[in-house]
């Protein structure tokens, strides 16, 4: 009796949330928790003026390539564009574009993979380039769940992994464009499934 009730309730919950809930919730949490963090960080990397997105600031170089920037005496004109300037430029653009794509649900799976890669690289730069200390790095299976690098960023990566595996859900531009181009999406809603 209790087993049937348990299976019935959670089976129903799984059916009514299939195809929309996880993607929407993951994107909502990304928007509420991470979007402004990355947006504000990206703004510190832009150069001056309208075309500042084409010429990252000294701060961008110092954040992304700390050792190279320090070796150049923080004179970014002394740093070769290829590959270093290109790395900084693409990193700056990625920090702006990837979060926007995830929030609106456009190319969500690819953007989420890009975000995972971005977080991994960012974490390596923080540890190797900026020399953060062990309490900031953290570790798995310790009693401190608030380390800025390992603990928090593992949850960021998990959030993006949900989007890679489950997709953005029906409330996304991917879903709208899929409908426009006739791509069938599994939603778990009985009226959206086509039968041959």
TrEMBL record:
Keyword field: Membrane, Transmembrane, Transmembrane helix
Protein name (Swiss-Prot/TrEMBL): DoxX family protein
Residues that span the membrane, as ranges: 20-39, 84-107, 113-132, 153-171
Keyword Membrane: yes
Organism domain of life: Bacteria
């Amino acid at each position: 009796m209790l087993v049937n009730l348990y299976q019935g309730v959670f089976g129903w919950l799984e059916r009514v949330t299939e195809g929309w809930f996880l993607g929407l919730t993951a994107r909502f949490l990304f928007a509420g928790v991470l979007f402004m963090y990355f947006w504000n960080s990206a703004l510190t990397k832009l150069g001056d003026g309208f075309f500042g997105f084409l010429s990252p600031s000294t701060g961008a170089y110092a954040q992304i390539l700390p050792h190279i920037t320090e070796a150049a005496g923080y004179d970014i004109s002394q740093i070769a564009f290829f590959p270093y300037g290109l790395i900084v430029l693409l990193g700056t653009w990625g920090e702006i574009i990837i979060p926007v794509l995830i929030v609106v649900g456009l190319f969500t799976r690819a953007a989420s993979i890009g975000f995972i890669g971005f977080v991994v690289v960012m974490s390596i730069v923080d540890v190797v380039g900026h020399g953060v200390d062990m309490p900031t790095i953290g570790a798995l299976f310790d009693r401190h769940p608030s380390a800025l690098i390992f603990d928090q960023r593992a949850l960021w990566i998990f959030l993006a992994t949900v989007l890679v595996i489950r997709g953005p859900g029906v409330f996304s531009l991917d879903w709208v464009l899929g409908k426009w181009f006739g791509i069938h999406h599994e939603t778990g809603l009985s009226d959206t499934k086509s039968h041959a």
